[in-house]
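Job type: complex structure
Entries:
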Amino acid sequence: MGWDYMLLTPEAIPAYVAGTPRLAGLVDPATLQVREVGDGNLNLVFVCRDADGRGICLKQSLPYVRLVGESWPLTPHRATAEARGYDAAAEWAPEFIPAWYGFDPDRFILAMENLDHETIWRTALNEGLMHPGVEDDMGRYVARLAFYTSVFNLEQKELKGRIAASVNPELCEITENLVFTEPYLDHDHNSWRPGVEPAVMELRHDERHVAEVNSLKVQFMTAAEALIHGDLHTGSVMVEMDGDRGHGKAIDSEFCFYGPVGFDLGALFGNYLAAMARAAARGRPADFTGWVGGLVSGTWAAFEDEMRRLWPERSHRFLNDLYFEDWLLKMLRDGAGFGGCKAIRRIIGLAKVSDIETLDGDAHVAAATAVLRTGSRWIKERHGFTSSSDLEEIARDVIGVEVG
Amino acid sequence: MGWDYMLLTPEAIPAYVAGTPRLAGLVDPATLQVREVGDGNLNLVFVCRDADGRGICLKQSLPYVRLVGESWPLTPHRATAEARGYDAAAEWAPEFIPAWYGFDPDRFILAMENLDHETIWRTALNEGLMHPGVEDDMGRYVARLAFYTSVFNLEQKELKGRIAASVNPELCEITENLVFTEPYLDHDHNSWRPGVEPAVMELRHDERHVAEVNSLKVQFMTAAEALIHGDLHTGSVMVEMDGDRGHGKAIDSEFCFYGPVGFDLGALFGNYLAAMARAAARGRPADFTGWVGGLVSGTWAAFEDEMRRLWPERSHRFLNDLYFEDWLLKMLRDGAGFGGCKAIRRIIGLAKVSDIETLDGDAHVAAATAVLRTGSRWIKERHGFTSSSDLEEIARDVIGVEVG
């Protein structure tokens, strides 16, 4: 299917803003300075600022993915999914996303707050920079979506309508392949350095591990629990400090659909694991490694706290408190399972994480091996987990042995 | 919303058949004898037979439910869902449904094989009539839909498209309310005879029981595993004998949607439980009670056998055999949980079952109590079940104590 819509250019943006009523009041088109900042692989991204310092960010989907050449077309409707994610978050979790200025469905253009003064969380973590509080923000962000977009809050027919409207097969298929399948097959997308081979082979030949990943994959494909972000790794979070407290905002929600809540928790947990392994490999100071080592519990505690705060407001009064305790436990275990899958694919498959990739030699091998072994233990042992510290203890033990 | 479509009458049917090309060859409109057989609560049902003895059955949805007065409007689009169920079964499980002659979406008319010589299974069970083999047929019917309409067989985008197209909120809401919610609330739909009161109160005040029912309800609302029948009780199965072997055909699939496979198994299990309690109360002969007491295992064994036969054909090769064993165990436990819910609601809530309702006095109280207590144990103990005999042993024990 061919796509025919006009791509934005820096020169065309003042007129586009002036001609779009919901945007015209936010910045002065007459004095707008525009800078293209995206890498242009998936999307065009423009940072715009007027003479008064007021800003706006425009993001437009390209109808293909440049990462693997223009031969991989990808529906620009992923911007429709991303807008759906922002719409929901703007209603129910506005403090945890950029200010949201809406969507142009004809040209697949999203408009939002300019965050060019902020940092991508992964970059900050890689540099050893602390933003304490971001882990709390992200736990609350997941909780808000989990509560407000689910049966806990929505009337049944609205819920069913949203589930049907939010199917996002093309983007979900990328996740299904990259996270749950390709790491366990011989596939062009996979690669690892020679020293990591033993840990990769361990996973592949572990039938119990593969069976659990199968189960998590089918759960990802069939459990329409709530609208989830769908790709909530540390590269999808923008951070900044406000005094002693860090703040985080989730971006890039194009993978959003009705799926398992634990998948968003797991994206965070799995990427925290990579950050932990890197911090150990880099020999970061104790305050940093201590903070990074507690990110899983920080996010979990905030998620749980926010859910407990919202629970009494549920519209579905029949759901009792004991059910809620069971539900929380399931979310923890799902988060551990999906977290393991997310961590592992970032070591073996396409789209590796810089946390581990930028380590050299033995340090890389040790960190990558620790992530794989921890991820597998999270997946296989999750049914017995009762606390977020269960995840952290395994990570600490394995990283200590491998990296220490 | 008002509905404006022409309802069928016996007089109008020959012309309707003659004017509908896919039907015209099946019977001779010129000699067609038409008899209205439905109770007219939900649907008009016409049995038609020509001079050569060839038959056809037409079923048309009414735009309301007469059961509780015409004040309860119900979308005639439930016929669209029913047709979707027949379409899928005609492709993948044709021997377990009536021959299917298609759907008229403008007038909500379904055309199928005339089964007026067959018996409703519940009626046969109530009368103590054996149709050995029907339980096997129904297990295979559930397995075929579970396999062919799920990720096991369908390509991902087709699966996602079918999930979205099959949402059936109005009918699902009836199930959600009647099966999972109303039995535990003070509601006009509920009633029971005085002697049953203690067992009803036990359930209602058992927080663990209610929490498990909550969990099953949310699973029913969110787990889009496969296209399921959605209302597969013994009143939705037509039976006949062929020599020593009974055969069953599933009808009335208007509740069909993408949901948990265990819900169809559970509908059978829960209604088998009612039949077991009745057989004990009536003091049926040992061959009958033995057969009825083994229906759960009969259906389960056929389901499992059919799934094992189909499993090697899965298109999703990545799913390994250990995953499949886990999946089977989950289906058994889900079947037990949903079966408990289905059995209980048939005692407490709207639409009670004749199996138990037509018992009198102490026999009614004992049978109803046994169904409630067995159902609750299935629900609460299911996480430890490893075999279908676990369900049957509990049922035998409880029925023995209550009814024996």
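Summary: Chain A has two domains: 13-112, 119-399. Chain A touches chain B at residues 151, 156-157, 159-161, 163-165, 167, 169-170, 172-173, 176, 180-181, 184-185, 207-208, 210-211, 214-215, 217-218, 221-225, 318-323, 325-327 (CB under 8 Å).
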